Amino acid sequence: MDITTIIGIIIGLVLVTSAIMVGGDTSVFFSTPSFMITFGGTVAATLIHFKMSHIMGVAKVVKNAFSDPKLNSAELIATMVRIAERARKEGLLALEEDVNEIGDSFLERGMQLVIDGADPELVQEVMETEIIYVAERHALGKSIIEAMASYAPSFGMLGTLIGLVKMLHQLNDPSKIGPGMAIALLTTLYGALFAYLFLNPLAGKLGVRSAEEVLRKELIVEGILAVQAGHNPRMIEEKLKSFLSPEGRESVDMIRDRRVHAEQQTPVETAPG
C-alpha cells in the first residue's frame, strides 16, 4: 500500500471539510442536483470519449496509485544476483524449481523463457514487446483520468450557468437571490474539488508509477539476458545498479551485506564419519 496517496487524500479532505464546517451552516454545501450535474456529466462525457472496454480497464491501472510492487528495484537486483549465482553453479535448468516463487510475474515469465531454451534475441523481443504494451495501457488509463479531470470543472461551470438562469427568473423575489446564487456556485465547487483534489493528482501519480514500472522491467530484461549469457553475478549486480539512484545502490549493498552476514552465521553441516 502506498501510504502517501492515502495521506494526501485524507489531508485534502480534512482541510476542505474543516473550511466548510468553520463558521456556517454546512448543509448549504450539499446539493443533489449540483452533484448530479458535475459527477454525472463527467461520467457521461467520459463514456462518449472512450470505449467501454478502455474504461473498464481503468480500475486495474488506478490500483497502481495505491499499491507498491512486491519487490522494489533493490530487492529485484538482489534476486537477480541470487539467480545468477545458482545458474553458474548448477546450470539454468536448476532454476526451474524456484521460478514460480520469485515474486515478480514479469521476471518469472522471462526466466521461464530462458529455462525453456529460447534464444536471447527472442527473450529480449518478447519482454520488450510486453514493456511497450504495459506502457501503452498505463498511458491510456492516465489519459482517461486526465480527461475526467478536464470535464469535471467544465460541467461544474455548466451547472453554475444553469443555476444562474434559474436565479435570474426569480429576480422579483430578492430573498431567493442569495440562496440561488449559493446553489449555482456549488457545481463549480464540486467540479474543482473532483479535478484538483482527486483526478489530477491521481493522473500524476499514475504517470510516476508507470515510469517506475517501465524502469523496473527494463532492469529485469538486462538482468535476465546477463544471467542467460553466464555473466559473473558480481558484474551483473554492478550493471543493474546503474539503473538506480545513489540511495537505491546503497540499499542493494545493504541487502547484500545482510545476506552475507546471514550466510556466515548459518552453521555448516558436516558429513558423519
Plain-language structure description:
The protein has 273 residues and is mainly alpha-helical. It has a domain at 51-151 and 199-253. The chain is 75% helix and 0% strand. It has 10 helices and no strands. Helix 5 packs parallel to helix 8 and helix 5 packs across helix 10. The two termini are 52 Å apart. One of its GO terms (cellular component) is plasma membrane.
Characteristics:
about 270 residues; 10 helices; transmembrane helix; flagellum; Flagellar motor protein MotP
What does the secondary structure layout of this molecule look like, with pairings?
Blueprint: H1 3-21, H2 32-49, H3 52-56, H4 58-62, H5 73-90, H6 105-115, H7 120-168, H8 177-228, H9 233-241, H10 246-265
Membrane topology: Multi-pass membrane protein
Organism: Candidatus Aquicultor primus
GO biological process, one term: proton transmembrane transport
User: Low-confidence runs (pLDDT<50, min 5 residues)?
Assistant: none
Order of helices and strands: HHHHHHHHHH
Mean pLDDT equals 85
Round the Cα radius of gyration to an integer and report it: 27 Å
* Tally of helical runs: 10
| Share of residues in strands | under 5%
GO cellular component, one term: plasma membrane
Subcellular location: Cell membrane
Domain Motility protein A N-terminal: 6-91
Membrane topology: Multi-pass membrane protein
